[in-house]
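Archive entry. Fields below.
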Amino acid sequence: MIIEDVRNILSANDRIAAANRERFMRWGSYVVNMMSAPGAGKTTILERTIERLNGRCRLAVIEGDVRGSYDRDRLRSVADIPVVQINTEVAYGGECHLDALMIANAIGGVELPVTDLVFIENVGNLVCPAEFDVGEDSKVMVASVTEGEDKPLKYPLMYSVSDLLLLNKMDIAAAVGFDRELFLRNCHSVNPALLVIEVSARSGEGIPDWLAWLDGKSAR
Amino acid sequence: MIIEDVRNILSANDRIAAANRERFMRWGSYVVNMMSAPGAGKTTILERTIERLNGRCRLAVIEGDVRGSYDRDRLRSVADIPVVQINTEVAYGGECHLDALMIANAIGGVELPVTDLVFIENVGNLVCPAEFDVGEDSKVMVASVTEGEDKPLKYPLMYSVSDLLLLNKMDIAAAVGFDRELFLRNCHSVNPALLVIEVSARSGEGIPDWLAWLDGKSAR
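PREDICTED_STRUCTURE:
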């Protein structure tokens, strides 16, 4: 019965996600759903991304957190762009992920007709965010070299559904003894098509490659 | 209605947790529920802990993962102790946390009458594991210096419910620019009573303090 409930919830979610997608497409807004474990560096990557893209295209962000608006404040201090905060603790029972309904409700705060690129920063969690289509065009996950090479095997759904993996904190890869070959082998064992871009949000390494990928996608 | 469902699930969970707790107490087994974000170092800390405690007291571990038994294999290679694997993907719809029923089902694989100390290694997630009492004596969370100083503010429930925080990867604190004072201030703003022990599972720093804490608790 619990399984049946879960199926109904996911099917309702998919209907709302389809409506979100239709609305994004109508206005030509490209939507990227950013997911990761807590602390992998989604917000810092977004800071670097917004710094470089603001003025070149029209940006908006939907921020998902259990509580607080720390990341919204960080992004708003980088550039004067719309950042809509979702707090799952307030309206959605403290959920550990974003779903399509939350995004549908948040879209009201984004002027899609004048927005080229929408970043959704999901709640930091390697499990449930991967289960919910929110109507995005691309799912981008961030992993950091400090998390361990075994994570693709332990959180396979997240690695399977992602179109792109930003492998972050490459500047400290040596300091933490990161085994790059093993990590990539584990990634590709669960998702042979997974594209990986190595970055450091701190040093800026790899960020141009990520922007080129974004450019190729959103210019379609 | 969803809120009502969630309340019913939590109340059912609490009844099963109380039964687990009674069973643990009957046999004098002390139970520690270890929680953290993915990659904070729960398993490596447990490796160091088992190395040092095995032979001094009778240990068992209940391992929680969405998929796989990589951590069980790691712990079993440290010492010949019972390690019971729970895969939430197989029997529990891919849940992102352990609950009391999963633990009740796993207890069958642990001989409580000859077990002094049971470690439960929860699914790596800073949100939902904090919501579920599983019948443990202590909730111990692991945070790593790479996760960012803001995490107590963004995942307040986990920091609030924990009895002890093991602050891990102190050996790379300087390399990642960790602001210790800010992190501790944020911790204590959500949980003034939170005890923090700074450790490095890699270098062994702080592990004796953690063992002394365990000793004081489980010897009661």
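CURATOR_NOTE: The beta strands of chain A are 30-36, 59-65, 83-87, 117-121, 138-144, 164-168, 195-198.
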